[in-house]
Specification:
The protein has 16 helices and 14 strands. The chain is of the alpha/beta class and about 450 residues long. α3 packs parallel to α5 (about 110-130), α5 (about 110-130) runs parallel beside α6 and α11 (about 315-325) packs across α12 (about 350-375). The structure holds D-xylulose and cobalt (II) ion.
Length: about 450
């Protein structure tokens, strides 16, 4: 019997008048936006760890989820679970997925046993990918869950743990390659610290860089051409995560000569934990040439931790899609729903409502963003705001025709500058509302 028998057929686009909770109102996969089918711009992915494995447990209580595909933590059941996942992806028309090694296959008593388990599951994943045409957006290794990683993985004080993490990543990279993965993500899990007294930060950062260069070298060796990503997060599980935000990651990447190989996977809830917004993180990464992929979710403004909720805020998705389009769209990346249903939403059908909501919120954000870009109204106002740089001294500075001395001469002659132009923030906000609420 199907795990989702309530969902009789593939979820379809029914348009804005539809009241069917199992239909899309905005996500119309083949509809062209800026000349490209929506599905190829948005590149939705589902996260194996949340969708299939999240149990609903928290610090105060055990799991709540009804998940007919759980049960025994063994290879045959893990293979069955893969089939359930692909039924889910197919019914939602989700073209990509992402996984950690330990979500898809049970960890064995030894690394060898874990690797053998992975091989068995990869076989099933490969068959399902072939049957459905669904692809792997990225793979990753879980280097944070097991007690051995209590001090970190690549930044552990224990060299044997570094070695274990290297071997585990080697395998995760190989299976990602075997599955045709378009990318490979490094989220720094426990790469950070709790206490400066017991920590040699410089040594830990050097080790992390060594680890990354080994990953790059191994990718070359096996012919993996997918994109590497760093996923910034400021805190959780450690107090100070080394990959705090986009700026900290880019600094690390450049300092250690990794800029040719690593881009960023920006997660909305991680951005807000860093006291930024996702649009700030995306624009910063994009402006520096590091925008790779997005973990699409959202946090709760009243809670200070990573709640990993599904996106429902159209303003936010509009801003995200404006920035993605501004930097030319995704190449290898996509919108991966690194999001989980609430503990109280314990039935399998809730996974459908959650993903449908997230997909529609992004599809609507994309449509609004494309409208805003098409009229050029906002772009024109921004251009006007900076027009002192298009002629005269501004143009001369931009073309390297000045220094401090020549500018001193210029401004002494000119006298006190006037404030030039109002920022017109409120007008900008009203215009955005005009495009959002029609
Ligand atoms: C953790 C997180 C991870 C990464 C992959 O907060 O976002 O699931 O996306 O390891
Ligand atoms: Co994530």
């Amino acid at each position: 019997m199907s795990a989702f028998s309530e969902v009789k057929k593939t979820v379809q686009y029914e348009g804005t008048t539809s009241k069917n909770p199992l239909a899309f109102r905005f996500y119309n996969p083949d509809e062209k936006i800026e000349g490209k089918p929506m599905k190829d711009i948005l590149r939705f992915a589902a996260a194996y760890w949340h969708t299939m494995r999240a149990s609903g447990s928290d610090q105060f209580g055990s799991g709540t989820m009804l998940r007919p595909w759980e049960g025994k933590d063994n290879v045959p059941n893990a293979q069955k679970r893969v089939k359930v996942f692909f039924e889910f992806l197919e019914k939602l028309q989700i073209p990509y997925y992402a996984f950690h090694d330990r979500d898809i296959a049970p960890e064995g008593d030894s690394l060898q046993e874990s690797n053998n388990n992975l091989d068995a599951i990869v076989k099933t994943l490969k068959e399902e990918q072939k049957r459905t045409g669904i692809k792997l957006l990225w793979g990753t290794a879980n280097l944070f869950g097991h007690p051995r990683f209590m001090h970190g993985a690549a930044t552990s004080c224990n060299a044997d743990i570094f070695a274990f993490a290297a071997a585990q990543t080697k395998k995760a990279l190989e299976i990602t390659h075997e599955l045709g993965g378009q990318g490979y993500t490094f989220w720094g899990g426990r790469e950070g610290y709790q206490c400066i007294w017991n920590t040699d930060m410089k040594r830990e950062l050097d080790h992390l860089a060594k680890f990354m260069h080994m990953a790059v070298e191994h990718a070359k060796k096996i012919g993996f051409k997918g994109q590497f990503y760093f996923e910034p997060k400021p805190k959780e599980p450690t107090k100070h995560q080394y990959d705090f935000d986009a700026a900290a990651c880019i600094n690390f990447i450049r300092t250690y000569g990794l800029e040719k190989y690593v881009k960023l996977n920006i997660e909305t809830n991680h951005a807000t934990l860093a006291s930024h917004s996702v649009e700030h993180e995306l624009d910063y990464a994009g402006s520096q040439g590091f925008l790779g992929s997005i973990d699409a979710n959202t946090g709760d403004t009243l809670l200070g931790w990573d709640t990993d909720q599904f996106p429902t805020n159209v303003y936010e998705t509009t801003k995200i899609m404006l920035i993605v389009l501004k930097y030319g769209g995704f190449k290898t990346g996509g919108l991966n729903f690194d999001a989980k249903v609430r503990r109280e939403s314990f039935e399998p059908i809730d996974l459908f409502y959650a993903h449908i909501g997230g997909m529609d919120t992004f599809a609507l954000g994309l449509k609004i963003a494309a409208d805003i870009r098409k009229s050029g109204e906002i772009a024109q106002l921004v251009k006007e705001r900076y027009n002192s740089w298009d002629t005269g001294v501004g143009k001369e500075i931009e073309s390297d025709k000045h220094n401090f001395t020549s500018l001193e001469k210029y401004i002494l002659k000119k006298g006190n500058p006037d404030p030039n132009k109002s920022g017109r923030q409120e007008l900008f906000e009203n215009i955005i509302n005009r495009y959002t609420f029609k």
